[in-house]
Amino acid sequence: MRADLATLDLAGVFETLGYSVTEVVAGKYWVKCPWADEHSWTHPQDTVIWQDSGSWPEFHCSHDHCTGRKLAAVIEWAESKRPGIINEHCSRQLAGGASRLKAGYRRAKKKFTRQETEKKVAPAEAAENAEQFLGNFRVDEADLWHTSAVYPGQDWRADSIAILEHLYFAHDFVCICTEFKEIKKADGSLKAVPKGCGQTRSAADWITRINDKGTPESAAGAWIRLNPVIELGSGEGGAHTDQDVTAWRYLLVESDNLPIEVQLSLYAKLAMPVAAIWTSGGVSVHAVVLLSSRSEQLFRADADFILGRLSRFGVDSANRNPSRYSRLPGALRSIGSEAGLGGNDVGRQRLLYLNPQPDGRPIFP
Question: What is the mean pLDDT of residues 73-96?
């Protein structure tokens, strides 16, 4: 007897082999391509499985390297990883021209969402994984300045203007927050977090205001919602929620588990469309990844895919929501401040790299 491929749970095969699987709609799944290492940049939507009851599942990857790779190629790949896995994931077998239910087969109901972003690694493991990935590769801020498509100016206080000019349209409403409250962390130290609804202006209005009065800040520095929003949020006191986002453009990638120099090198080496990199004034560097998703649902799926790929480096999986704050370049913080790269620039939230149209290849191949 042989497996009835019309009953093959191909998404389950990928999950069993440890590959990310996200169910977009019933019967359609985004997966990590088995040949992703051959791609310059793998967008979550590039590789798809269609799985309808009663017909063979279909596999499609939009990259040129995978032209011609269909179900047969995936079966061959899966069997090379784990012989017998295809039969394991078929509920029926063909015998004498008929399809028969396999004895004792019980298909578990799966929900293919966020499985990789939930993985936690200890700081020591994250650092070890990063060191293995990077090898001897290291970059510093000068390296990033010299390769930046938009050169950060000499006056770091004007970094806020640079990102407002190049990462947003003039009419985009952008929320910046300087109010904060302090919360106690598990180790007993205090951490400042944004409080209230912040101020929302068009990017053009913010540029005029900052040119006149300087980058807004408080003792805790300042935060910016990475994605454009409506002018008045629907949350308490006019605060913005995920439903108030008007363009699902950027994803924040950060890790507090790695030395700051390692973080910088990691974001410069990874194959993903990094639009900007700036310091937080604390223990992390923020990488702004261009997604340009078409909806909140797709943004979350895109975020799950990327954060799942990076979970081994201890990135913050909480950054999957589109209304997420990042630190605002050009602001100075004293609460929670740390020395910047090379031990300088204590508390400065400073722009290091800006490329409004990244192509997904590593900044430094």
Answer: 91
- What order of strands is seen across the sheet that includes strand 92-95? 2-3, 92-95, 98-101
Neighbours of 26 (CB within 10 A): 7
Identity of residue 52:
D
DSSP for residue 219: T
pLDDT tens per residue across span 190-224: 789 999 999 999 999 999 999 999 999 999 999 99
What is the average per-residue pLDDT within 94-117?
63
The torsion angles phi and psi of 30, rounded to 5 degrees, stand at -90, 135
Residue percentage of the chain with pLDDT more than 70: 92
The greatest distance separating any two alpha carbons of the chain, rounded to the nearest whole angstrom, comes to 82
H or E segment and range at residue 211: helix 203-213
- Please tell me the chain's helix, strand, coil percentages from 3-state DSSP, rounded to the nearest 5: 30, 25, 45
d(CA 61, CA 46): 6
How far are the Cα atoms of 53, 131, 190, 266 from residue 260, in angstroms, in the given order? 49, 13, 20, 10
Q: Which of 217, 229, 346, 231 is nearest to 279 (CA)?
A: 346
Distances (CA, A) of 192 to 30, 39, 106: 37, 40, 50
Question: 38 falls in which pLDDT band (50, 70, 90)?
Answer: confident
Cα separation values, 33 from 30, 80, 89, 140, 172, Å: 9, 15, 19, 32, 35
Task: Give the model confidence (pLDDT) of 139-152 as tens digits.
Answer: 999 999 999 999 98
Under 8 Å between Cβ of 288 and 252: yes
The predicted pLDDT at position 92 comes to 87
- Beta-strand (E) ranges in the chain? 2-3, 21-25, 28-31, 47-50, 58-61, 92-95, 98-101, 173-177, 180-184, 190-194, 199-202, 223-225, 248-253, 274-279, 285-293, 325-327, 351-354
Q: What is the pLDDT of residue 13?
A: 94
Q: Write the CB contacts of 158 (distance below 8 Å, at least 6 apart in sequence).
A: 210, 215, 330
Q: What is the mean pLDDT of the chain?
A: 89
Tokens of 130: 């990063």
Question: CA-CA distance, 306 to 25, in Å (whole number)?
Answer: 19
High-pLDDT (> 90) share of the chain, %:
63
Closest CA to 5 of 59, 71, 79: 71
